[in-house]
Design goal:
107 residues; alpha+beta; Alpha-Beta Plaits; four-stranded antiparallel β-sheet; 4 helices
């Protein structure tokens, strides 16, 4: 069964423009790793105050996270992106995502 995953993070307001620029040219090897580990229909939405909403579809989100955690490209990406976020408390951005509960879906 496919999982629909929605999560929140908070980008520092002073880093919004650079965060958006970085996502205009995500490394090809990072995109490949996401696809290979089951991240499909992956989108990020950003509010002007820095609230970041992520959405993806996958067969198994826990497995998709584990798969990415094993990739060196992910470790590099997470290390570079961590300074953009608030309230990570020493975690990587992919560890600090607040997953939202799905309560309705119109298919």
């Amino acid at each position: 069964m496919m999982e629909r995953v929605c999560f929140l993070l908070k980008v520092k307001p002073e880093r919004l423009d650079e965060y958006k620029r970085r996502h205009q040219s995500v490394w090809p090897e990072m995109l490949e790793a996401l696809r290979e580990t089951g991240w499909r229909n992956y989108s990020l939405f950003l509010r002007p105050d820095g609230l970041l909403v992520g959405y993806l579809e996958t067969d198994d989100f826990a497995a998709a996270l584990r798969g990415m955690a094993e990739r060196r490209v992910n470790e590099r990406w997470q290390r570079e992106m961590a300074p953009f976020f608030e309230a990570l408390d020493g975690r990587r951005p992919d560890e600090g995502m607040l997953r939202l509960e799905e309560v309705f879906h119109l298919s």
